[in-house]
Write a structure and sequence with these properties.
By secondary structure, the chain is an alpha+beta fold. The chain has eleven helices and ten strands. Among the domains are: 127-191; 205-292.
């Protein structure tokens, strides 16, 4: 049986919470933002329903506040050093890069432990060593390999342009495959690290699926680009030809407007192509990853994702328009609409009432890594 996830939050209702959070955060110079984060999390978790029960969020505001203060202190130090001591700021950035895998791991574990369903907490047990492998060492090794291949192609290109071209092409192909491999390993790290009480999630993520999906995305982008270029030539080609042969200058024939409109249309077209392609890839990969997830102890339980490219792109475009038109004040509705859509395309397979789970008492006293990861936009997951 499939248990559809439902979200019952309302935009107007959450707007009141969001607006009060915003005002109090401004009045208290950001101190209340820790309480605002907890209230927001509790609202969204508490309105997410699965098989008649709701999720809950257990972090304490004081945990968030302590972590946020440390994170802001680090950001302030880096900003001052960047302005006054550029060399020192580079050193701090290097230290941050070295700490990034640990931050991602700690952030994921904190968020998981603070989440519960039916009074049973989630957990994340992925190792710090694996985090450094997938987020730092393997990407670094891949980058070095690709750089070496490009240097070899440059050396060969000096004596044979054809040989250099072939090696360059092989280097790009190698880079593409390695990118897909690292992406699959990152997804596998998260999938196999989550636990729900005594039950552990597992899934085998295949690199081939990533290669196929990204290749399909590349083909889609190429076709859309060709259509856009062909349409542009059909619409503006005659106008440019007429202007160039008129002998009266571009401005005298309204050519300035035509040129500006053509450039503007091209920018919009490329943005839409990027949006459609990224939506296609994101939806395909999410559906694939969720289809591979099951509970290790019993295979009858799993996750289902029915996200579509059309639905995701429509959501992204409409949310963007809402934010622009409302000058940002529609953000509560955007957040609620996003949560409703994600819930509507997600389900849990299996009889949850028959699932026997033993809960653990999990403590997470520090949210420093969580706030540092958020400050530098390191929140990574499986969607």
């Amino acid at each position: 049986m499939d248990n559809q996830i439902k979200f019952y939050g309302q935009g107007l209702e959450f707007f009141g919470i969001w607006f009060v959070n915003l005002l109090l955060s401004v009045v208290t110079i950001g101190i209340y933002s820790a309480w605002a984060k907890v209230r927001t999390k509790k609202y969204f978790y508490g309105n997410t329903d699965l098989a008649g029960d709701r999720f809950d969020y257990h972090a304490k505001p004081i945990q968030i506040l302590k972590g946020r203060m440390v994170a802001m202190l680090f950001v302030l130090i880096w900003f001052v050093c960047n302005q006054l001591f550029p060399t020192l700021s580079l050193l701090l950035m290097l230290i941050f890069i070295l700490l990034a895998p640990w931050l991602i791991h700690s952030n994921t574990r904190f968020d998981a432990r603070m989440t519960s369903f039916r009074n049973v907490h989630f957990n994340f047990t992925g190792s710090v060593k694996s985090a450094y492998n997938v987020f730092l060492f393997w990407p670094l090794i891949c980058a070095v390999l690709i750089a070496c291949c490009l240097l070899i192609s440059a050396a060969i290109g000096g004596s044979s342009w054809l040989g250099g071209l072939i090696v360059s092409g092989l280097s790009l192909l190698l880079g593409f495959v390695l990118f897909c491999w690292v992406s699959a390993e990152i997804a596998s790290y998260f999938v196999n690290g989550y636990h729900y009480g005594s039950c552990s999630f597992s899934g085998k993520i295949d690199t081939k699926q990533y290669v196929t999906t990204y290749l399909q995305g590349a083909v889609l982008a190429t076709v859309l680009t060709a259509l856009m270029v062909g349409t542009g030539i059909a619409l503006f080609g005659y106008s440019f030809h007429d202007i160039s042969n008129s002998g009266e200058g571009i401005a005298a024939n309204g050519g300035d407007f035509t040129m500006i409109f053509a450039i503007f249309s091209s920018y919009i077209g490329f943005i839409l192509i990027m949006l459609i392609t990224s939506g296609f890839i994101q939806a395909r990969l999410r559906n694939y990853i969720f289809s591979e997830i099951s509970i290790k102890e019993t295979a009858e339980y799993g996750l289902i994702s029915r996200m579509t490219t059309k639905g995701l792109i429509t959501l992204m475009l409409s949310n963007f328009i809402l934010l622009v038109v409302s000058v940002g004040f529609a953000r509560p509705w955007v957040m609620v609409r996003t949560a409703k859509y994600v819930a509507s395309v997600t389900a849990v397979q299996g009889d949850l009432n028959a699932l026997t789970v033993e809960g653990d008492t999990l403590n997470a006293s520090s949210a420093v890594a969580d706030e540092l990861a958020e400050a530098f936009d390191l929140n990574i997951g499986i969607g």
